[in-house]
């Protein structure tokens, strides 16, 4: 077995910013990692640990895959459950949030007239999953339109109004899907209040927490007790790709009869009915298919790094959120624009910041139909010529960027991002996007 005991590298400190980026991570020299939210990254020592596990797997394939892996998997489930305030028996690991979403939605026994509610800010892959299901299942979907900035009370009001509208059409609001933190704009969502509303009205709640564990405090999730919850571990928890945690409380585990894809853990209904659904749920996900599952085994090592080197989850979150707040304000000042939402806005309590670019359709002499293409051109320019990647979207009639706060960044990095965006906007105004 590979030991989880790790020691800091020579000269390593827990100083956040440039020093941590250079000493603890593997970024290319000169590269500015401003988009942690899309694919995440993981420290050198977690990389080394994973490689040791891969070497062990190749040295004794059957021993590792059949026995060692299951022991490490159990340890990882215990570790990640503690971050969710959940029982280890309520969590399993899958490769990514999209897999978790498909697993849950393909297992729910939808009936004619059933409707899935979601917000217009839903992640694209989740939206397409619902569309795909609707082609061969007796269900429909209802999208709730929202545009930021918007306060939580308004979101809740629109949610209840949508439920009333679905019912008025003679349909059944069966399941509601919503985020912990939105992808774009990057904004914290009032998932706790939405879960409570779902419980009140008898609707299944499914939280897409892709930007969840390692990003915001979720140690109370067990008390919130959504019906289903999925969260990537490779984004904000510093675990190798791909790894995600799927939380299904004991009360709902009987609803999950198969993984996606179906594999060795599956049993037909007659056999499932004879089994304890808790045991069946856990066994179902122990081995889905032959692949490199070492990312699943790296959760304890990632948590060790976050505690030992970063000072713990609370300290890490505090730095990242503060960086997003202060760095975002500095960017807006340099750009001469604004941050999406006041610093006191509840949706800004996360590690993302959205900053408007000094560019308008009027200046470009185009209409809104060109906005998406121009934003895409600017976004693609960032890795092609500026050694970074900055998500840029045409949103609510303007051009916006999303920056991820992380322990390996400083306010100076975000100031550099603003100066770079000024150059890109100047090039756009000169017509280079055409």
TrEMBL record:
Top-level taxon: Eukaryota
Keyword 4Fe-4S: no
Residues covered by the Aminotransferase class V domain: 71-250
Record key words, sorted: Pyridoxal phosphate
InterPro entries assigned: Aminotrans_V_dom, PyrdxlP-dep_Trfase, PyrdxlP-dep_Trfase_major
SUPFAM superfamilies recorded: PLP-dependent transferases (SSF53383)
PANTHER family named among the record's database cross-references: HERCYNYLCYSTEINE SULFOXIDE LYASE, L-CYSTEINE DESULFHYDRASE
Protein name: Aminotransferase class V domain-containing protein
């Amino acid at each position: 077995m590979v030991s989880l005991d790790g020691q800091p590298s020579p000269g390593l400190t827990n100083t956040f910013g440039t020093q941590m980026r250079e000493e603890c991570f593997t970024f290319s020299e000169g590269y500015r990692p401003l988009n942690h939210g899309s694919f995440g990254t993981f420290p050198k020592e977690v990389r080394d640990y994973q490689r040791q596990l891969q070497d062990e797997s190749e040295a004794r394939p059957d021993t590792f895959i059949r026995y060692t892996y299951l022991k490490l998997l159990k340890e990882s489930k215990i570790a990640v459950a503690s971050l969710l305030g959940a029982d280890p028996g309520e969590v399993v690991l899958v490769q990514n949030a999209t897999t978790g979403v498909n697993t849950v939605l393909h297992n729910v026994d939808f009936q004619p007239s059933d409707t899935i509610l979601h917000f217009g800010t839903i992640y694209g892959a989740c939206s397409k999953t619902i569309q795909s299901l609707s082609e061969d299942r007796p269900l429909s979907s209802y999208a709730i339109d929202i545009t930021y900035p918007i306060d939580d009370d308004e979101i809740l009001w629109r949610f209840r109004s949508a439920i009333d509208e679905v019912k008025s059409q003679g349909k059944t609001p069966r399941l509601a899907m919503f985020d912990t933190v939105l992808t774009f704009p990057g904004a914290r969502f009032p998932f706790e209040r939405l879960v409570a509303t779902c419980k009140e009205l008898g609707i299944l709640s499914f939280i897409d927490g892709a930007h969840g564990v390692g990003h915001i405090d979720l140690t109370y999730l067990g008390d919130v007790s959504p019906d289903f919850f999925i969260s990537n571990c490779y984004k904000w928890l510093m675990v190798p790709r791909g790894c995600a945690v799927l939380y299904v409380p004991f009360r709902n585990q009987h609803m999950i009869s198969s993984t996606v894809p179906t594999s060795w853990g599956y049993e037909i209904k007659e056999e499932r009915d004879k089994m304890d659904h808790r045991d069946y749920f856990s066994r179902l996900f122990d081995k889905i298919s032959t692949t490199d599952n070492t990312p699943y085994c790296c959760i304890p090592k990632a948590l060790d790094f976050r505690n030992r080197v970063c000072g713990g989850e609370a300290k890490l979150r505090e730095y990242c959120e503060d960086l997003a707040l202060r760095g975002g304000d500095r960017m807006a000042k340099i750009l001469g624009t604004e941050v999406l939402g006041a610093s006191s806005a509840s949706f800004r309590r996360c590690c993302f910041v959205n900053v408007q670019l000094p560019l308008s359709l009027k200046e470009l002499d185009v209409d809104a139909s060109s906005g998406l293409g121009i934003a895409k051109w600017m976004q693609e320019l960032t890795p092609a010529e500026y050694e970074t990647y900055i998500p840029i979207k045409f949103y609510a009639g303007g051009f916006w960027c999303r920056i991820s706060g992380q322990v390996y960044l400083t306010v100076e990095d975000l100031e550099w991002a603003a100066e770079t965006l000024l150059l890109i906007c100047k090039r756009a105004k000169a017509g280079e996007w055409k």
